[in-house]
């Protein structure tokens, strides 16, 4: 083999994962966890006693952070599960064109890849009405997890 022969080496991004592993017994009420591939906020946890066949089990009741649907899962407390990395940020609305929004953060960065929210159904119309008034500055809170971004709330500032 000579130096002129090239090897094909694939490089992959060493970017951060969208989830982190965690033992089921370490998850707390009000925290986040993945259930059936969906990022959820934990509403309640009940722990069963250790039985003669093994581990104590954690029964989680949680709500999907994007759709609001209630989900349940049961995992032995010593087993692993995944926790989504959830970020929230505030953006000011610059323009609304159809359902597409143009947003800007405090640093002057623009975001054009978000649409008006579909959950709850009334929020999109409320944002549109507040925007058509023209006098108000409208700030939206954007929540992101596992590659999904969605507007979760808004507020008018005069």
TrEMBL record:
It comes from the Eukaryota. NCBIfam families: eIF_5A (TIGR00037). eIF-5A seems to be the only eukaryotic protein to have a hypusine residue which is a post-translational modification of a lysine by the addition of a butylamino group. The keyword Iron-sulfur does not apply. GO terms for molecular function: ribosome binding; RNA binding; translation elongation factor activity. Keywords: Chloroplast, Hypusine, Plastid, Protein biosynthesis. This is Eukaryotic translation initiation factor 5A. One of its GO terms (biological process) is positive regulation of translational elongation. One of its GO terms (cellular component) is chloroplast.
């Amino acid at each position: 083999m000579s130096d002129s022969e090239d090897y094909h080496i694939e490089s992959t991004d060493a970017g951060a994962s969208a989830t982190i592993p965690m033992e089921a017994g370490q998850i707390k009420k009000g925290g986040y966890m993945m259930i059936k591939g969906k990022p959820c906020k934990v509403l309640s946890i009940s722990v069963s006693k250790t039985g003669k066949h093994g581990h104590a089990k954690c029964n989680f009741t949680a709500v999907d952070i994007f759709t609001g649907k209630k989900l349940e899962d049961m995992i032995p407390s010593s087993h692993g599960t995944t926790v989504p990395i959830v970020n929230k940020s505030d953006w000011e609305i610059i323009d609304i064109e159809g359902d597409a929004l143009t947003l800007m953060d405090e640093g002057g960065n623009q975001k054009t890849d978000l649409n008006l929210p579909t959950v709850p159904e009334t929020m999109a119309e409320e944002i549109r009405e507040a925007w058509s008034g023209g006098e108000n500055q409208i700030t939206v809170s954007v929540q992101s997890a596992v590659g999904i971004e969605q507007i979760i709330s808004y507020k008018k500032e005069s």
